[in-house]
User: What shape does this take?
Amino acid sequence: DTETGVCTQQMEEGLDTGPVHLSQTHAIGPRETGGSLHDALMTLSATVAVDTLDGLEGRVPTPQDEAEATHCGKIAKQDGVIAWSDEAVAIDRRVRAMTPWPGGQAAWGDGMLKLRSVRPAAGEGTPGTILSVDPLIVACGTGAVELVTVQAPGRKPVSGRDFANGAHLVVGGAL
Assistant: This one.
C-alpha cells in the first residue's frame, strides 16, 4: 500500500462497523517501517481525535461501505520469515513491515538470521546465493537485496559486511 490512515467512528456492536466521523490519510514512505508507521499514526490519531471532538456537534457521521472493508489478522513471529525465492521488493517490504516485531528472519545454519535492515540492490542469481560480501548482497527470486544490518542468534546486530567477514561468507556461496 502507498497510504494508510486513521479515523474516528461511532461505536456499534460489530468490530469497526460504525459510521465514520473524521478520517485522515498518511502516505507510507519508501523506507517506512512498522515501527515508524506506528509512531506517525499515533501522532496523527491524537490530532484526529481532538479535531473530531472539536467539531462533533452538528457533524453527521458517514456510513462505511462494507464492500471496501479490509481486516488484518494478528501478526505472528512466523510472519517475519522470508524466502529468498521471493522478489527483492517483496522481501524489503516484509522486513520493513515486520520491524521492529517480529522482525525479518531468514534461515541460516541451525537457526534464524534476523534481518534488521535490508534494501533492494542490483544483481541476479540463484535465490539465496551471495553476490557480494562488501556490501552483503543476496540474490532473490527476482533481483537482489543488500543485507544492511543483521543479527546472528545470540549476537549483537552488525553490518552485513561485518557479518559476512565474521561468518567467512564468500561470493557464490549460499546464505
